[in-house]
Input
Amino acid sequence: MHRATSIVTLSHWTGTLQSRMVFSWMFGASEATTEPTPETQRGGYECAPYTILENHPQYQVRNYPSRKWATVLHEKHQHQANNDMPMSKEWKQQPQNKSFMKLFGYITGANETGSKMSMTVPVSTKVTTEEEDGGTVMKEEMGFYVPTEHQETTPSPKADQEVKVVTRPEMVAYVREFGGFAKDKDWEEQKEQLKQDLEGRDDFSQIDFDMYYRQ
Output
């Protein structure tokens, strides 16, 4: 069964600043029959590390440590047509597919040292929305988790590449899972549903719903 995960994030002070962010992701998973445990591998691929802090019927709370990610930023304007269906001719020209291929090139040797790195999961996309003169612009920063063996000495992207290696800060993430292949409208609907599920929390007023992650 294919499932997708939505995580809502907030920022607040607890001695040190922790970022709590909103994610969404898609992956293959079976129905849980025991107490959930963090994934370390999925389909033979290394997973970005996390620990589980809380389990609730509608969502899970996780802590993600600060780690390096290889990223590519692309923008989608409100007036642009968007085909979310995979493997279609139009989908191959979509910015998210182009970002994926740029990142895939980076990990398969298109970097300053020619190093090859293993694919990891999830593919995590940071989503922010801004209002500009031409209308609403959605900025999506797609990221590949840098494998553990390359975290300390991460290969630099080539100067002419759009790939950037960034360190995403430690964050506490609220995770919602939902099934099926998710289109843009599905991510937004699930984010709103997660927002409703979190309304009873003491820290609800501190949550920044303008930024979230898709995974």
In short: The two ends are 16 Å apart (CA to CA). Residues 184-197 form the longest helix (14 residues). The chain has a mean pLDDT of 80. Helices lie at 89-92, 95-107, 184-197.
